[in-house]
Amino acid sequence: MKPGIVIVGGGLAAATAAESYRKAGGSDPILIVSADRDFPVHRPPLSKEYLRGDETLDKVYVHPAEFYQEQHIEVRLDTRVDAIDRNAREVVLDSGERIPYSTLVLATGARPRRLPVPGGDLPGVFYLRSLRSSQELRQAYANAKRAVIIGAGFIGMEVAASLTQKGIACTVVEMAPRMWASIVPPVVSDFIQRYYEDRGVSFYFTVGVTAVEGNGRAERVVLSNGQNLPADLVVAGVGAVLNTGLAEAAGLEVERGVVVDDRFQTSDPHIYAIGDIASFPDPVGGRVHLEHWDNALNQGRALGATLAGQGAAFRHIAYFFSDLFDLSLNMVGYPAGWDDVIVRGDPGQNAFTVIYARDEIVRAALMINDDRHFDTWTHLIETGQHVDSSLANPDKEPVLAAS
């Protein structure tokens, strides 16, 4: 096989990088090696629209299978890369086959963190990440009446909303005192909790899980306070583990992700990393890694153009979205480490924006059913504008404050 671009990983970042490279005129051979059994998919619908049956499978795939053939992109599914031989510029597959590369792209993403308790791998315990896992959960909830969701992160809360909408009684268990404590103030977590409780969802905070029990499959969740929660199915959303093992074993620099420059090049000039695993320099947020759909999409696009000779330094304000029942959440910017927040609008009306500040500089904005000024918040964050008390007035258009 003639050396070309080898992309390790089968998610959105991998598919988008290959697509972008071809669109930018790149003509080298491309091989995508994916451990998944399915072609690359968009992950957000797996816990929402597709999980509920509101979106068809063709909408979930990033591209139909024919796209890869038409664009001369070879895809090997259900195939693992066991090692990188940097000296020979080859990847070693789980079959022992060695594939040469001129450029290697690591887009290996993350995997769900497993429950470290007895019964965490019983049938009936689901870890949502892949298309197959979403399909298995769809089959399981068809005959379920009660579900326990372990973890009140975004995956857990999205699944709880979806299952509740399908008529399943959901209980959410979270070790922290409130949901999303590291990225939202209490006004947001309290609002979301009340919104869910009004729709029948129950919560247990500041309590852990000590076991999942059942006769051959999950039937109950045992809490650290001794309480047992009956369940027809259990969904664990307790975080993710970055798939950086391949990079570490190859001797690449890894620190909270694979360390890359502003064009995604690693410490090896022939190897790049994008998506969840990339620790990249952000002009506003500093060195970060982001596990978001938007990040995978835009990094894939940027790297494809770079490899085709048309790239530039990556500059993109972080963005995240979620849909919970009929709430649309849009987060732009860098909420970590805020020291002040401004609430714009009335949470009682189910439409408001929270503006985050640090050292009196706008750092992020969380919009709940209120994305009219999305571009303005993005600009305020990108340009490092000072906060202004008038931003709290929903009847006034947000304007740039004097620096």
Describe the structure.
By secondary structure, the chain is an alpha/beta fold. The chain folds into 3 domains: about 5-110 and about 240-305, FAD/NAD(P)-binding domain; about 115-235, FAD/NAD(P)-binding domain (3-Layer(bba) Sandwich); about 325-390, FAD/NAD-linked reductase, C-terminal dimerisation domain (Enolase-like, domain 1, 2-Layer Sandwich). It has 10 helices and 25 strands. The chain has helices at about 10-25, 50, 55-60, 65-70, 130-140, 155-165, 185-195, 245-250, 295-305, 375-380; strands at about 5-10, 30-35, 75, 80-85, 90-95, 100-105, 110, 125, 145-150, 170-175, 200-205, 210-215, 220-225, 230, 235, 240, 260, 270-275, 280, 285-290, 320-325, 325-335, 340-345, 350-360, 360-370. Strands 1, 2, 3, 4, 5, 6 and 18 form a 7-stranded mixed beta sheet that branches. Strand 12 and strand 13 form a beta hairpin. Helix 1 (about 10-25) packs parallel to helix 9. The longest helix is centred in the C-terminal third of the chain and has 15 residues, at about 295-305. The protein is globular and about 60 Å long. The chain starts with a strand and ends in a 21-residue tail after the last helix. About 40% of the residues are buried. The mean pLDDT is about 95.
**Rounded radius of gyration (Å):** 22 Å
CATH architecture field of the largest domain: 3-Layer(bba) Sandwich
Number of domains: 3
CATH topology (fold) name of the largest domain: FAD/NAD(P)-binding domain
The CATH homologous superfamily name of the largest domain equals FAD/NAD(P)-binding domain
**Mean pLDDT value:** 96
